[in-house]
Amino acid sequence: MAPTQHQQLAFFRKNKIALKAKHIAILIATVFSYVGMTYFLDILDHNSQRIADTTDLGVDCESVVTEYSLNRLGQGANLSKDRLEEWSHDHKAFIAHGTKTVTLMDESRIASSRKAYQDLDMGHKKLAALFNVENKDMDHKVNLDSVIRWESKYLRGVNTLVANYQLERENIMSRFKLFVIGLAVSFLFLTYMSYVVIVRPMQAGFKKSLEEIIDQKTRLSALVDSTEELIWSVDRNGRLSMFNSAFETFYVNRYHEPPRLDMDINGMDCFRLHQAAYDKTLKNSSATISQEKIGQKVYESRLDPVVKNGQVIGCIIRRSDVTEREKVTDEIKKGREALMEAQEIANMGSWNWDMANDIIEWSDHLFTIFGQKKRDFVPRHETLKNLIHPEDRRAFDYAMGRCLKKRNRQHFDMVYRILANQQTRFVHQQGRIFHDGNGRPVRMAGTIQDVTEKVLSNQKIERQNKELRHFVNVISHNVRRPLSNLLALANLYEHGHHQENDFLLGHIQTSCEDLDSTIKDLNHSLTLKEVDANHFTDVEVDDIMDDVTALLQQEIQDSGAQLKVHSNRKTIKGIKSYYVNILYHLLSNAIIYSKPDETPQIKLSIKDHPDHVSIKVRDNGRGMKLTPENRKKIFDMYGRLSGKTSGKGLGLYLVRNQLEAMNGEIDVQSTPNKGTVFEIKMAKGLDEVYQEKDPLRNVNRSISQNTVV
User: Which stretches make up the PAS domain (predicted)?
Assistant: First the structure.
């Protein structure tokens, strides 16, 4: 739901509470008004009743006295006992009720009313005593003046009470007017506050909500009209209820007339394809996706139900051109198939390890390499370890743990044996570790390749190399013995007696020395293959340079070469004699291949880098034209680029072999008539890198000792 809709809902909830509070306040005010009105009306009714009762008592009193007086004058009947008792009963009831009545009179009026009640009661008692019809003797003795006097007193009390009650009525009416005015003011104030607190904010809120709704509707309409997708909506009867500009353009181009709302589109050919999707969407109340291909274009239509009050009243359709997406999907599919084929050809697979959840994703070919079925085997760290040869599990755990603990060591590289389908095979696993923002390893990905055939081939080559070295040793021993005899005999010959013999024996001696040197170099190149990293030491750079300059002292003097040495390291890991031989050959070549008319300028630099040590030999000599072919040939045995030189072509070959024996590499850059640069890179931590740079090397050794596949 959009944020604006949340705000509108919150506003409506708040106003709903305010409206409830307003209704409660109105209800309370209404109840208060009703109670107040009822209270005042009851008091007014009671006041009117008391005035009427008091007036009736006065009339009854006058009637009784008049009847009595007429009887005394002989002009009327005798005063009946029932008439007298009725008056007495009304009088007593009035007096009893009057003493309990709540009144709104002031203190003076209350006192006056009490005096009037006393006068009424006294007058009634006296008149009742005078009117006792049962006392015949006293009847003729009653003085009419006494009757009139007590009647007057009684009537005076009646008049006083009536006057007080009328004053009380006026007081009640005044208070009632004030109550009505206060009630009207309260209602006006409540109405004003309701408008200020509730109605006006609600009006502003509704106005804002309405503006936002209109703005959203405008933006939505603009968004719908700006897209190239066809969007339209139909009701349950298939009548058009909404469409965008793209739909209108499509409809006009197809039917040559504009679409109309509420038109039936069921029978039109371009929408008949969607009929089944319509029915499915209306029936299941869920989105439906369908595709259609028209020519070279692929269109996808998504139908979503329109729900109102829990009922599906129609559906909205969005039709998109997904041709490009389908092309990309096909290309991805083809690329995936090509990747799977490449992995199958290379006999390797890829993997991804989620370390937090211990979930490993394998490519399909890895299941084949490990002899597992995809539906039955779940790749995890422990299940993978169970497939590793028991003798290699400890080494695998050690290498993996070492890789995970060192943050600067992100690559895992190891060859180990696995048990696949009751066969022992060799796999080469490589991987890279990925860390989170806190430097913790979270994921690892890489490849696993079946290298069984390569390991067996290397084993065979290793055996052949041993046999070759043994053969060369035997041949060199058998050849060098007669060769040494020839050199000894040549040295016994005394020169100067026979010129022709001197010439022939000189050539024989030179040829024997060249052959002896060649045999020595051949033996030396073969022995380089057996170098062990345990022989590496920290060699002083100054010691190396002392030996090299001593060996080249004569060449430097003869050529006048200028040698500049710069180094920011004191030691280099490796074998001293190898470094001496390497630099000797490189510097010697720089002097030999210098320009005849220019003094040789040779610069030797040794620089320290984060992961390697760089050694560069730069000269200003003849240079050479390097092609991919002769770049490789220059480091081959007997590889010479020109027949004009007198070398045998073993110098750079020995340099390369000695560097590779110490886990180094060499490259050359050269420009004719400008000079040549030889760059050597020696990896740091040779004792560690030597063991891991070529994992198959150590595997080959273990295979040759105790492993048969």
Answer: 335-407
